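Notes from the 1:1 (GR / supervisor)

We went over the backlog. Supervisor wanted to see one worked example end to end before approving the batch request, so GR pasted a single chain during the call. The sequence is below; no edits were made to it. Supervisor asked that the structure be written out right there so they could see what the output format looks like.
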Amino acid sequence: MSEETEQEMPEARIADQPSDAIEVLKAEVESLRDQRLRALAEAENIRRRAEREKSEASQYAVTKFARDMLAIADNFSRALAACPPDVRAAADPQVKAVLDGVEATDRQLLGTLERHGVKPVSTEDGKFDPNLHQAIAEVPGNGKPPGSIVDVVQSGYMIGDRLLRPAMVTVARRGETPPPVDTKA
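Structure output shown during the call:
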């Protein structure tokens, strides 16, 4: 082989390879572009997850403390319930002042809990919800539909969208039918 032939051969190979090389490079660029987009999407998902976890951590950080404070709120409520309005009205001014102080402290405690995301579980509609209420007894319904809430023994609370403590309730006994409604009256 002569020198000219050797020099022509690499040029011939180069002439054949550019289109192959371009295709290989295009495929590599596309692969790298795909990897980059996936990495960016993963980074965004990690950022969102971290943001959500941070938000939940701050929202639910007071859970254990709030649970402990609810025991105190319950005691304030029991203290106020132990003194009916007629006894309170007849009490001497010093006892009234103590009761007013207990009432104010109870309101302030519940207000503070509410500012930190702790809210009472609703029992106003009278419908028993096993996700929010804990039935501790079945009692005569006294005209209420079976399975509905008759009395709230202990208030329940939510923190954010999580149940902190279920409301302890008594429910109308099943099998008892409410009295018929008189439509003639």
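Supervisor's comment: The longest helix spans residues 3-60.
Batch request approved.
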